[in-house]
Amino acid sequence: MSNYTVESTIVQTSDGAKLRTRLFKPVEEGEITDNLVVVLVHPFSILGGCQAFLQGIAAGLAGKGYKTVTFDMRGAGKSTGRPSLTGFAEIKDVIAVCKWVCENLSSDRILLVGSSAGAPIAGSAVDGIKEVIGYVSIGYPFGMFASILFGRHHKGILKSPKPKLFVMGTRDGFTSVKQLQKKLSSAAGRVETHLIEGTSHFQMEGAEFDNQMVNLILTFISSL
User: Fold this and answer.
1) Following DSSP, what letter does each residue of 14-54 receive, concatenated?
2) 54, 117 in Cβ contact below 8 A?
3) How far apart are the C-alpha atoms of 191 and 157, rounded to whole Å?
4) Is 49 exposed, middle or buried, given 0-12, 13-18 or 19+ CB atoms closer than 10 A?
5) Residues 134-192: pLDDT tens digits?
6) What is the phi-psi region of residue 139: left when phi exceeds 0, alpha when psi lies from -120 to 50, beta otherwise?
7) Whose CA is closest to 58, among 47, 48, 69, 50?
8) What is the third-level CATH fold of 4-222?
9) DSSP letters along 153-191, please?
10) Which helix (H) or strand (E) holds 207?
């Protein structure tokens, strides 16, 4: 028997996009650890990214007592609207979902987690949502070629004083370990990194790494 349930809803953004959204939560209300809600932001929509990529992490966190929300950004899955090439329109999506969390789940504490291109998008939203108390990046694309699309997002998370964790494989094809360290050397606030030896960017998006991501997120939450 599953130790979590899934509810579906639609969240509307400030510019009218309708986002297919799922809430993963423990079966019993008494099993909810606290009122912190984890919001997961999926990889690049234009390359096929959608909330299904994050289902395993969401289920794992819900099983550990945390309400967790996934959603399809505009133009992904069955969400309306069109995806943008640089991810700036999608910032509105993250803000809308976090607003829905605060209004419907009685939460004033949100952890934002972004995977791949979802990391810069989530990072740009962090300081625009006062209820966000921390940020986790899984494979942030800081490298030179990825920066052509996402470079303007960098300053959003690097200047934020909120606690942040950057998880990356040492064989990430978009960002080298040296590039990651150089970028984070100028970051404000508390910054943590976790490198997964011998792992590539797209490997980390696979289901075999879901449990490891859940445990890293739980450890980070315990420090907030």
Assistant:
1) TTS-EEEEEEEEESSGGG---SEEEEEE-S-GGGT--GGGG
2) no
3) 11
4) buried
5) 999 999 999 988 999 999 999 999 999 999 999 999 999 999 999 999 999 999 999 99
6) left
7) 69
8) Rossmann fold (3.40.50)
9) GHHHHHT--S-EEEEEETT-SS--HHHHHHHHTT--S-E
10) none
